[in-house]
């Protein structure tokens, strides 16, 4: 059917979608200035995350593109350049992450040193208020820095709060977290981490470096699209002309081939490996961390990219920062222990590791309890005041305990050369020199004030080195033969351990970038040094080194907090150069994990995902509960789908009334009339189906249940919402027979359309995919009668042919398949939609990420908040009626009949839950 004359201009017009709202904009109405500053209790705290599309769309256009790509001209030594482009992204990820790590270390060091020098100047002055002035200056400097960092988080980049490791793990598991990997998140993560660590908060840079590495990889992948749309590309055009402009665009088209979700997942995995290896100076440990903790999908290709990025980030740090050539937490060498020493001290090592695991479990318990009293994310001013309050506590306990419990000890030469050790209230002494030489200044430091107020990084190194002669003053070296004089008092270490545990628990969860690796190591090191010092004093003739106990306890607390194992051992051994203590490190990790698990089941990652609540992590292994279920008991029914040639009006109606992101495509003439399956079968209908089913089985005929299945439609493929948006955007319409309207068929145009579909989220809604499931893109299309302006389109006469574009090889399972098998297929293949079919390939339900998460049930092993139940109409109606077996016996049929599957059709949303939602399982994911 030819279009009317007034329809032709509209059919020839295409639109460009808007980029989407700013990350911090949550209120559509204009609030007052005071409300924008303070925040609102009723404001939404976040959007439900979408799932990522790892599965390639295989259709005729896909095969044509692969054929053209194979037969095309090879541009570089027999290659198309795709492999080289991916390698360049990996290399740049490692190098740039190394630059960020060096910058983070340099700026943190400079600010911390300047702050401590200011405090030293105050303590060296005269006056009785030096202690109060020092406390006030420490608090004010820290408050200014953390206020700026928290304000940036609350008003500009909310996704940069915390360490970010948990959300990166969720992203690599298949959840698209809005604004997690965008450029402003990267910048704010860098600035905020510098402010948090420099202010003296119990936070470290290791966790944020993981997020920074992931952001670097993502920004490199998406940088081309943003540059070509902005002023940078216009400047290039003005300088070099239109021909060079087009040539550059043509060359950069190669990036369209490496921006699929599966490729992007590999680059983000490499960024994670580069970030953690840069933080510890441990490339092998970084690769193992990505494999064990961060990545849910692993392959040899992913391992290769992770190894290259991790090695390059570490090598970049070694070139730019010479002090980091031997590990980021390398310490002064301790004496190696012989086998008999390990055996004799084994009971003490068990106590050391068990207590470390107890500290890790206690931290997780305190942190979760404090969630009840924290300000919600949208109360901006309260969130800022929380961080300022923690700086106040750190300054208060450091100055008060330094004055009340600190002891003055001679300053070792190694400490003085590195500028470590705070004088506080200790006074220097002057002793006469030899043979008329000038007096020599004998400096002292306050041990408790040094523990609380000094740089965490240097304090960890000093605790690891306790027991080595370089850590002793000349007087202590003379007395070392008679007794052991530790650099920190036993009481000071005990006080610091208990107090720091509370401060660390308060700091976890604040609205400021910062990680928990370094605080966990410092907490464990203080306990280990305390325990080792007591043993050294008690058994002076044994080869007991408190620094070794500090290393093992620090590793144990890490294991108790994060519940890691293999990667943690390698990170600590590489980062400390402590290969001689490998046995103790392994023992500490195993023991601490065991103790912590029996006290508090959840680690940091699991509990954080539980708190977030809008991402759904699927475990590598299916939970035991899934082995007792089948697919039809966990699937969602009432599936919305389309025919192969569907009216545009109905497509728009379905897209407006649902939030689904995938739609089954049914064969023509098998999906029934609209309205046939809007309701599940009633009790009376079920009895009839049982009777007819059993009778048909006895007579060899077809069952009524099979007729119900026919209403679902024979599956032909799956079409994504993003593909439909592209077709609507380009006005790719046809008549009822599939003949094009308002356009001529072109093979190249079809290939270009396939490229637009494949790269849709690269160009639109890159960091806010949830917008594509709202009405905003449909409003911008201006196709319906409300938004079409003066031109009125008769959408009932316009159709869309979905056959060339739908995925013709969707993964399906039978409805009697094990739910555990469905979990394995879904996770291993990186699916977003898993269709459930019957024996005739008719769709009876759909399984998504949320359905599997809900079916897993409750348990300590959960890695995320339990999802809402799927809308299974059959199960919902069967709960209110007797069992099918009882009905069969009631009507006199010989045996129980199988329950009929719920019908699924592509026209109507669930009337019980309203047309605006659709079924949540296939909608949001």
Automatic annotation (TrEMBL):
One of its GO terms (cellular component) is membrane. The chain crosses the membrane at residues 76-102, 267-290, 302-322, 342-363, 384-405, 484-503, 515-535, 547-572, 579-596. Residues 914-925 have a biased composition (Low complexity). Residues 806-863 form the CBS domain. Keywords: CBS domain, Chloride, Ion transport, Membrane, Repeat, Transmembrane, Transmembrane helix, Transport. InterPro entries: CBS_dom (IPR000644), CBS_dom_sf (IPR046342), Cl-channel/antiporter (IPR051280), Cl-channel_core (IPR014743), ClC (IPR001807). Pfam families: CBS, Voltage_CLC. SUPFAM superfamilies: CBS-domain pair (SSF54631), Clc chloride channel (SSF81340). GO terms for molecular function: chloride channel activity. It is a multi-pass membrane protein. It is found in: Membrane. Residues 1-23, 897-925 are annotated as: Disordered. Coiled coil: none annotated. Its main location: membrane. Belongs to the chloride channel (TC 2.A.49) family. PANTHER family: CHLORIDE CHANNEL PROTEIN, CHLORIDE CHANNEL PROTEIN CLC FAMILY MEMBER. This is Chloride channel protein. It comes from Edaphochlamys debaryana.
